[in-house]
Amino acid sequence: MESGAVRGMLAELDFRRLLRTRLVGQCGDGLLSGALFGAAFFNPEKATTAPQAAAAFATLLLPYSLVGPFAGVLLDRWSRQRVLVLANLTRAVLLTLLAGSLTQTGATSPSTIGLALVVISLNRFVLSGLSAALPHVVLDRVLVTANAFTTTLGSGAAAVGGVTSLGLRDLFGRDNSGAAAIAVCAAAVYLVTGLLATRMERSLLGPHVLPREPVATALKAVASGFVEGARHLRRHPAAAYGLAAMTAHRFFYGLTFLGALLLYTEHGALHRGLAGLGQVVTASIAGGLVAALVTPRVTRRIGMQRWIVVALAFAAVVEVAAAGYTHPTFLLAALGLGFSAQAAKICVDTLVQEAVDDDFRGRVFALYDTLFNVSFVSAAAVAAVILPDNGKSYAVLAIICAGYALTALVYAWTSSGTAPRPRSGVRT
User: Fold this and answer.
1) Mutual angle of helices 394-415 and 237-264, in 10-degree steps
2) Whole-angstrom Cα distance, residue 78 to residue 296?
3) What are the structural domains, with CATH classification, of the chain?
4) Does the N-terminal or the C-terminal CB of the chain have fewer CB atoms within 10 Å?
């Protein structure tokens, strides 16, 4: 990552304001994840089986994925700045209610699950808006660096929130009441995020032309808008093939994550608890930071598409390191897989931003997010069948390794000769 480009971006007031909104919000995401994971998977009063873990992820992520089409249409019709303000304030209110539900009815009650579904759905709405907004506050020529810088710092902020939740768990307790207290802390962070978003002008983040039809009419256009976004994407093969590669990547990443989650529960093969899993997540984020530092420089030499191939192939090699099934080998594998995931995502995000017109960008990024999460849910469904409850399976590791290698080969073949087309709606 070039320091000159970063300094240039940070000199822009609008970029700094958008970045602050992202970082504080993703810190809240980390706190929320810590609260939910602690209550659902690392509660000392319950054990977690593979089907239960898979069902929990499917319950949370399937509705989260269905939000995608609605988010895309609305992000292309509403002021994205207003979306960031209102979504964060709504998250703060809902999390306060969720905390009360956790205390009174527990982590698996319908009210707690329902509130969690809504809050998590809003999380993806916010992240889609941030991605669609970024080209409005940076120059076109530094989009790769901007994506590397913002997504990596965002992941780091989420990690800070997650680590903070571990400390708060020791302070407030490891039961449902402790998780509720952490959720209240996350609500306070989301409130601050919404206030920070008010510092940006309403029209700053696009879209440039806001349709005059009422919201009800826009919502009726969800199905057609989703199809239009997919059709627009088909006309830009560089972006389309990149999304396909990331969808496959997410599936194998999901299998890996579900296996690691089961390994680190109290009844797993490694049984190191939430603190041990937190170390694995931290190693993954550190790998993402390294990817952010090197990706802009490397892509200028070999191109984004070749770098995606390298990242996918590297993920296949990294999975071999996990075969030791020890905590140190999993830390090493997490470091490498975090590098691979972030390197590929930076490039795919940039390919989409470079190819897609601004008035379609919200819909395409919403499609991106939907594919991303449906792929993870699919991985959870497969994990429920093929993973043992303790998470240890050499056969599953072999499947993941072969899957990454095949994805790299297919993407190298299909993406050859494609390149992003110029599009409107960005700063040049």
Assistant:
1) 170
2) 32
3) 3-415 (1.20.1250.20)
4) C
34 has a pLDDT exceeding 70:
yes
Whether the CB-CB separation of 100 and 90 falls below 8 Å is answered with no
Task: Say which residues have a Cβ less than 8 Å from residue 204's Cβ, sequence separation at least 6.
Answer: 14, 81, 133, 136, 137
CB 261 within 8 A of CB 41: yes
Least confident window among 1-5, 52-56, 265-269: 1-5
Task: Estimate the crossing angle of helix 237-264 against helix 304-321, to 10 degrees.
Answer: 20
Backbone angles phi, psi at 139, to 5 degrees: -75, 150
Q: CB neighbours of 322 closer than 8 A, spacing ≥ 6?
A: 256, 329, 330, 333, 397
Residue 368 pLDDT exceeds 80: yes
The answer to whether 189 touches 24, Cβ cutoff 8 Å, is yes
pLDDT given at position 425:
45
- Three-class SS of residue 139? strand
Residue 387, token pair as written in the block? 């993973």
Q: Which spans in 134-221 are helix H? A: 143-172, 176-197, 215-220
* Mean pLDDT value of segment 310-314: 97
Is pLDDT above 60 for 201? yes
Of 168, 204, 164, 202, nearest to 24 by C-alpha is 164
Which of 146, 181, 196 is CA-nearest to residue 23? 196
CB-based contacts of 169, cutoff 8 Å, min separation 6: 34, 38, 178, 179, 182, 274
What's the CA gap between 308 and 4, in Å, rounded?
24
The predicted model scores a pTM of 0.76
